[in-house]
């Protein structure tokens, strides 16, 4: 039976001090991410309008003023784990949704959280509980909850999702999840998942553990960077990592019009999902393979040789990704479950690192083959599940007229 380990908290630095912060202070706390991803420039081309991003997580608060009217509450696959009458906390899911599609509030939306794709819509699909919920132990032990992620993926696809964000991870792949990933890709859905927060845990001294669903072929696996845009110490490093994004001291929204700050590959994943939404809004027929290629080809802070296991092909750049997508938009390549594993399909340029990345020649690697190798290695890991969550540092209550 699949076991789900306790939710892992990741420490984050306190951003605010003193009295409750004004909402424009929240936006100020986002400026480093906005600059790094070059969002101001990217928004001249796309803001994600018309795209539906499914957030497979702990649930999203649809009433947070920075997400109001942008959230569709979908199915709860954890139903029955909590005792009757207990409401879900929805912290982690709201946090991730705000990074993807927060639209702010107040005059011209200039207060509160602005997401990477502020005009995108969110489909909330609840597939995990947070550790403080009373049904957490039941959820982690009952066999009926064994394949909730796989079921959530299929549900999101059937509900019309264009992008699926999975800021969740576990150490062993399942047949049902693999099939669900294949189904999503065959329908043209872009899947983005967290590489994991066990970067200080080495396997034979060569790499950090592989996490699923990130290490499945065809999934965009995201690592986290620190303020210097280097691999954050907690971020998993292995050949499944495709790209990276900021993951330290990231400001986001929480239930009840609160604001949080934290760190993790969860946050980095949500930011990359937002960039994928920008691409799908501008080029709705672009296949998952070409979206992944646009993200990788256009990344900044590329490692020496073009690729390494720490940050993949580099840090995602939204403006560059849109420009690269424009060049790729005329291609007719598609990524089915089989094609996503085809070693003949090159993804991006770069010298391979000293891990399981297949070198096509001195300057080209096939990343999806690398991901397939990651899946094979990851299957040897112990059977445990980790959910990548940020640690709540401080709640900031902000007045409605702020």
UniProtKB/TrEMBL annotation:
Transmembrane segment boundaries: 367-390
Family the UniProt entry places it in: Belongs to the peptidase S8 family.
Keyword Transmembrane annotated: yes
Organism lineage: Bacteria, Bacillati, Actinomycetota, Actinomycetes, Streptosporangiales
Residue span(s) of domain Peptidase S8/S53: 48-314
Name by which UniProt lists this protein: S8 family serine peptidase
InterPro entries attached to this UniProt entry: Peptidase_S8/S53_dom, Peptidase_S8/S53_dom_sf, Peptidase_S8_Asp-AS, Peptidase_S8_subtilisin-like, Peptidase_S8_subtilisin-rel
Record keywords: Hydrolase, Membrane, Protease, Serine protease, Signal, Transmembrane, Transmembrane helix
Listed SUPFAM superfamilies: Subtilisin-like (SSF52743)
Any Pfam family: Peptidase_S8
């Amino acid at each position: 039976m699949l076991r789900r380990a306790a939710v892992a908290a990741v420490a984050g630095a306190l951003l605010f001090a003193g009295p409750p912060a004004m909402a424009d202070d929240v936006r100020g706390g986002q400026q480093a991410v906005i600059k790094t991803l070059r969002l101001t420039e990217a928004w001249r081309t796309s803001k994600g309008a018309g795209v539906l991003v499914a957030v497979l997580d702990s649930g999203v608060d649809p009433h947070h003023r920075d997400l109001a009217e942008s959230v569709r509450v979908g199915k709860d696959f954890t139903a029955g784990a909590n005792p009757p009458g207990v409401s879900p906390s929805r912290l982690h899911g709201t946090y991730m949704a705000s990074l993807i599609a927060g639209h702010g509030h107040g005059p011209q939306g200039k207060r509160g959280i602005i997401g990477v794709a502020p005009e995108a819509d969110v489909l909330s699909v609840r597939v995990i509980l947070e550790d403080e919920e009373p049904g957490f132990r039941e959820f982690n032990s009952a066999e009926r909850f064994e394949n909730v992620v796989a079921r959530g993926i299929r549900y999101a696809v059937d509900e019309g999702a264009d992008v699926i964000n999975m800021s969740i991870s576990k150490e062993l792949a399942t047949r049902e999840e693999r099939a669900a990933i294949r189904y999503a890709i065959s329908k043209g859905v872009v899947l983005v998942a967290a590489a994991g927060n066990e970067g200080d845990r080495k396997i034979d001294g060569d790499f950090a553990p592989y996490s699923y669903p990130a290490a499945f072929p065809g999934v965009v696996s995201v690592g986290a960077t620190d303020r210097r845009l280097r691999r954050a110490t907690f971020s998993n490093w292995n050949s499944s990592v495709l790209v990276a994004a900021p993951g330290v001291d990231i400001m986001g929204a929480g239930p009840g019009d609160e604001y949080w700050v934290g760190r993790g590959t969860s946050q980095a994943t949500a930011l990359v999902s937002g960039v994928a939404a920008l691409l799908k809004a501008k080029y709705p027929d672009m296949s998952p393979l070409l979206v992944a290629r646009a993200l990788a080809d256009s990344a900044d802070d590329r490692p020496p040789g073009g690729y390494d296991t720490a940050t993949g092909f580099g840090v995602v750049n939204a403006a560059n990704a849109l420009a690269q997508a424009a060049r790729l938009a005329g291609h007719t390549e598609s990524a089915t479950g089989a094609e996503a594993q085809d070693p003949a399909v090159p993804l991006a340029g770069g010298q391979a690192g000293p891990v399981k990345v297949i070198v096509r020649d001195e300057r080209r690697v096939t990343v999806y083959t690398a991901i397939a190798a990651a899946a094979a290695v990851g299957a040897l890991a112990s059977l445990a599940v980790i959910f990548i969550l940020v640690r709540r540092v401080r709640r900031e209550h902000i007045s409605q007229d702020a």
